[in-house]
């Protein structure tokens, strides 16, 4: 059962969603001052959870232990999820053959929490060939059957029902017929037709679709959705003062900066690194509101909307390319690409649309060489037009996926180079808070790549990779108390690995005190920076970056 948030927070009417068309417009407020590193509130388990279909196969449905190691044969995997025990495995529930557990303890806990009612339902869904339901429907089935059987108390249920289901918004949207179908399915399969009616289930589905948050691992991999009457009260800002961290099913709300007593606690629902038009569109389409946060008030003058050179300076050959680009009209019509009314700005809007399209298309490819080719195409639009600063989207996201594809293709040297570029030049501008969880986890994966290469032949001549790995590991260890908290399994595994590496290095160098390696480590970081300098033509030929 969901726990009440602790005395550190309270709910009240939020000034931020005064303009919300319906709903109570409540938000979460701080009962005392908070500093980075504190936990504002901790919830042991959200009320409802539903894993992505692919995670049902390899993840414990109770504690969310994800047992598959992506890229099991190379560096990033060696470090990104060190907190997962080597012998971790999950076994399927022999009743429903749908969910999996990592052991008896998790199976028993899930059974008592409600799987005893859901098991038969899942079994009947599972036995129908080709039937797979969206995760929102599984979340609803679970909650309806638990409520029917007295496993969700009146107060929690009332709070859940207070969340806005945005039914009128959904009714006008293109997903309405899907929602009606899903509600019918949920009511039918959950066997709760004599307790709830279809309209109620439709509003419940709306609540899940418009209020759920993403379940994440401590290394920020998305795993599914969660809905909780307390967590789902937190409003959005594109310049949030807090973020959500998880460790298994435990959810903590953590400050991104100092928060004063009685200040509203705000998280981000969307990717806040996107330009203004894209953020607004995303928030309007998925959460039905117009954001008026401090960043949105700056409109296109915020750093997320900066160009390196103004659109009027676009080179003639790129203007010509923009004129000829396939799908030009659709790219121009898409408000997400809007740059301005002039002819030059329209060319830039087309190029921007194309670069975002490359990012989306690359994700749909089945083969990594194809994704890499498309990602490089997108990156060269950003770099060769000379319009994009290194931190303007979709440039950073293209680079992220590029690193992933390069690793899959075992192009380790380029993967490390791009990972270092991201760590050293992109992230400090993209996420300006040093302990932002995305920054910390990416620093750690760069550290782990360096560590992996420290055991191989030197990949960058003249650079001592063990010392680079050490410095990046120390940086991560110094920040993860704030990003993750001292007791998070990520923090514990980072610190353990750091101690191991420090003592191995001490043994090799014949010293007792690891702190004396610091000077040499800093020197190696400087050398690495000289070898991989900031360069505007950084992405022209990914292989040709290292000096
Ligand atoms: C997850 S709920 C947050 C809790 C909500 N305020 C309530 O009282 O239930 C999301 C909804 O809150 C409102 N909301 C959240 N952040 C907002 C913001 N920055 N500006 C306006 N409305 C916001 C929108 O109606 C959105 O669909």
TrEMBL record:
Where in the numbering of this chain does the MYND-type domain appear?
60-119
Q: Which InterPro entries match?
A: H3K4_H4K5_MeTrfase, SET_dom, SET_dom_sf, Znf_MYND
The alphabetical list of record keywords is:
Metal-binding, Zinc, Zinc-finger
A single GO cellular-component term from the record reads:
nucleus
**Molecular function per GO:** zinc ion binding
UniProt keyword Zinc-finger present: yes
Where does the SET domain start and stop, copy by copy?
A: 7-270
Keyword set includes Zinc: yes
* Highest taxon of the lineage: Eukaryota
Q: Which PANTHER family match?
A: EG:BACR7C10.4 PROTEIN (PTHR12197:SF251), HISTONE-LYSINE N-METHYLTRANSFERASE SMYD (PTHR12197)
Please state what the protein is called: SET domain-containing protein
- Give the originating organism: Aaosphaeria arxii CBS 175.79
